[in-house]
Design goal:
homotetramer; mainly alpha; Methane Monooxygenase Hydroxylase, Chain G, domain 1; about 65% helix
């Protein structure tokens, strides 16, 4: 039971102030446009969700800033990222409401808003930076121009990003070389053996034509090539330097380990967490994609609110602003359970719960 | 091109004020609960959508207040109600975000909010009243107790409700008795003929057993009974008095006319509008249902925030607060196209576009 | 690389046969109704999803049939139940397609289908039974009449249901009395202390009026009463006998333990699994609810396909067919983290991972 | 009441056959993979929805094949396209079920399916062709290779596509030059006047700096340029030849007319229909996008089932396979209601309902 004075719904939510923040420009100009209220409310709701998104990402970043992330904090981090994913889903669902406004309705007040633009959302910028988006120089300049001087007001601490913190956490995992089990050399052997089996299978296949065999061999060569680029640290580092990869070699190893042995209790939550990061990445990409489509439909290829030819720019950012592509890409390097090196018993036991060992 | 000074995104949306309205009680009490921010933001977002919902319903009500609703205004009304339906959908989708908060997390700050409760939302109350919800005395008393003195502040003009305005508009339709075509007597004859055909079909059915025939006859009797209650104005009025029906006899006739001849151009938009009203009604019912489930899961059957045993009350309101049940119920009285009286040619022409007649 | 002959998409999916299974009755009767194809396909798709639902539930049931569920199998069970929840969501989404068919369109062929009805779906019946739905005698008789003789063909092994298996698994948990820590007595003390604190807080509250204090006391008495009914095994058993509760006293204790200490690594997956069971229960309830609404809208209150007055029956089943209500109801008995007895260190260690202890 | 023998749910839906069409390859190879059932069912469900999609598109195409589309058929076409949009939405929702299968689970049976691939779906190919997708030669060759000889079996009549039929219907509209009102010259004058107003507003703006004025002038020049390319038929035709536009000049005029005067009763349904076509286009694009993301996540950049490096190919098709881009692009050419030439009264009357004129 609370000891303080009773709380009322309206004052708790500060409704009088909240509901007085919608002041259409069109009304101020003496020609009220019915749909401008919708336009304002949709964007205010977006900003409220961005705030919640930041609240969760900040809390997860602070959990991951610890030198050693306690296991119970892992569960917390996974839950909060799951919430972020749900918010990202809602951002998408919400577009269907804005889409009920037609371009002609938008034209009734669009000119009055110039040059305001969603590109000026500081919260969205911070959200991307904190998640780990990397802008190339042109994008960054575009962003800076839009955020303008207001940016200075925000002292957002965006570093290290969630990407960096997760990368470091992966690199710290003790299981890459654990009590005599070296994951990387076991994995390398398994891959080599698998590729040799495939090579033999092609050579001795009873029903493949010669040209089909050549085709299969070419594909196998490509597969081998892509595994080589992973297994060789130097080549991986080179790909990172060229920005074809982003995740460090060691962190990639750890992520693979978790994916391949995700059935082990100790990897349940880490696996879920990595998967959720990829989910969020894809949801944000889908949101950018759908948002670009909607903007295109609303303003055509004309110069957008904000002076940028919106659609072209938006569209170009859908893929380039993804953060955890290397995690999504792990599928390339998974090997079937049947080819997977089995863990030594004492390692498997370590990855289980303490009470089991003693049972 | 705007002539005024340039507008900035943040000032247009009043972001500094908007984003300063989240002040968790738990922080004020010195034991910040991470999830209270979510709780506040979710409810603020709900209130913003309620405001938009009211904005649309108010505009549709004002369109329908005209003595004669211009045809182009019908299209506008249908679009705005479609938007309301989209908002109602989002209210439901949004629950999945609140559901990421577990009951244990809620317990961290729930006691501090007492006795604040969603039942104190004036906007939601107004929204229901304006849509046409009728509360029975017990519900109304419950509502008044919750809204309390704050209610006085709101001078919301909730009458006539959308239900009443739509009912009046239906009653005014000129087509019930139009240039020699009396819809109700044509419909009555068609129903009578259909039921007689069915009676004969049962009697002469080649393969039905006697007991099956008896069963079919009993069902036919029930069907006849339910048509009779519709066709007889006095019986219908009596059902209205007993609150088993709500829509007046004349409005019901008009709604049936629109449903049966909805392929006629003049009925396209009216049919869509009536359908959307039922959609909104169902979406709000689904929202209440899902909301009740969530509240149950969050607080159990314990006394809820706000001093009411939330779930029981919420659950009881899912059905009773529906407004357009009689429209949803029209399916009961539809007759197959093959049994439908065909319109006289000059009537059909009147329901088409002017340019067609002259083509 | 596969060793067999190449597989083709169409033959793998048996598309020629699959796509030949849609034979509208209306076409057979010489008056093809456009929408009957939709009606058939929607229901065939439902049956395919029911099959998948059964596939997952069966696999989870077989995992839980083991005397001791291996921890890695727990992760598997949780994932598969998550998939079931996703399927249940889709069942709901799918209704929006059927809703594009209007009642008048349905009338074009409805009579031809008599007395076929969704109540005759054996897979859906099995799915409910395997999940753990309990039908009262009237419902069961209704069901049997609809399933009719065809039921004999299905030798579905529906026992023990998932509910029963989960109950048994909960009862087997070793942690209720573990190395000197007796959960139930610790919980009882914590509840007693919390209620006493509340009692004192009311008595000494500085600003409550006397009548408010009386009101608070009455509510506290109800809360105490509901905790008493849980803490006293005999009273709980009595509630079970009267069908006000379903989950055994011991299983309820275990479920509470998992909810209260869900942050412990060993409880992460069990907590998720229990939550998902409640999710599925609610999704099925939502589906029944929305489905009832749709049926109502499609056929009114008229006698439905299948000779039952569909809506009334459907509506009545929404709540009564829930299975895991007692898990959803656990919120009633949670106590704030601040009041929670902390685990002895050696118990907490046991609930962590083996590698942590040795680190 | 039906006259025939009673129909049973299971036989109506041919459930015995339907539910026997799931035969996992992994089981045939003696190492059953639990998730292959899901894989089969998901794809069979997709094919059932494709069939329904085709059923609707075919019916709309046949409505539009008439020399003059009756107004009541327009309503029918709009409803059926709305259903297609709902199906397209479900295709997207359904991905969330397939996403519950992890890459490692897929690896358990992926090799056995080689080289089967979704690219071999004839129904999907037909669906795209009938909707109006144009494949470039490389895409078409790729498609042909995948569909292979089985294609011959399908005598699908894909021409004229829905795109072509809609284009022809737009070109036939009588309102471009109607009773003395020439839309195109009125539109041209309005555009010219608007651009001149903008030019003057820049020149005389009280607070713009010189460099801002230069910037505004450059943007205005671009806007003028893009209107010119529309207003000049030859330039438009040239853009069509270069495949930068697809919709003919006359059809574009008609589509613009409908968008600008969509409040007129006669344009309600046409406007809705055009909007729904763009919706479907976008939904299919979103589906391709999300599907590509999922495939990437499932198989990485490795050579996909079907021998194509799936993701790259899929991704490249998201935009290029859109059909109604020119309709989506109309926003570029809308002018504010305030600048819109008002219709002569007798034209406005013609676009209303016949009964209004006589009222």
């Amino acid at each position: 039971m609370a000891k303080g004075p009773p709380i009322h719904y309206a004052s708790y939510l500060k409704l009088d102030r909240l509901l007085s923040l919608q002041e259409p420009e069109s009304a101020r100009h003496g020609r009220p446009a019915h749909d401008e209220t919708l336009f304002i409310i949709v964007h205010q709701v977006y900003e409220l969700w961005f705030k919640q998104f930041l609240h969760e990402i900040d809390s997860v970043r602070s959990l991951f800033r610890q030198d050693r992330v306690a296991e119970r904090d892992m569960g917390l981090a996974a839950s909060r990222l799951h919430r972020v994913a749900e918010i990202a889903k809602l951002l998408i669902d919400q577009l269907s409401i804005l889409e009920t406004m037609t371009p002609l309705d938008f034209l009734d007040f669009r000119d009055l808003l110039s040059p305001a633009s969603g590109f000026q959302s500081i919260q969205f910028h911070d959200l991307e930076m904190k998640f780990g988006v990397q802008l190339d120089p042109a994008q960054m300049e575009h962003r800076q121009r839009n955020l303008g001087s207001t940016r200075a007001d925000s002292a957002a601490d965006v570093n290290p990003s969630l990407f960096t913190l997760v990368e470091r956490w992966l690199e710290r995992t003790p299981f890459l070389d654990f009590r005599g089990f070296n994951f990387w050399s076991a994995y390398r052997s398994a891959v080599t053996a698998m590729l040799e089996r495939d090579e033999k299978a092609i050579a001795t296949h009873p029903s493949l034509s010669d040209s089909d065999k050549e085709q299969e061999k070419r594909e196998l060569a490509k597969t081998r090539e892509s595994f080589d680029a992973l297994l060789d640290k130097e080549r991986h580092d080179d790909l990172v330097k060229k920005k074809h990869r982003r995740l460090s070699h060691k962190a990639t190893q750890a992520a693979l380990l978790i994916h391949l042995y995700r059935d082990q209790p100790a990897f349940h939550v880490p696996f879920r967490l990595l998967t959720t990061l990829v989910d969020i990445d894809e949801l944000l990409a889908s949101w950018r994609h759908r948002h670009a489509l909607m903007a295109f439909r609303m303003i055509g290829t004309k110069i957008g609110t904000g002076g940028t030819s919106g659609y072209g720019y938006l569209r170009s950012t859908v893929e380039s602003r993804k953060v955890f592509t290397d995690l999504a890409n792990l599928a390339t390097f998974l090997i079937p359970r049947s080819a997977l090196p089995s863990l030594p018993e004492h390692v498997e036991k370590s990855l289980g719960f303490a009470f089991e060992g003693s049972a």
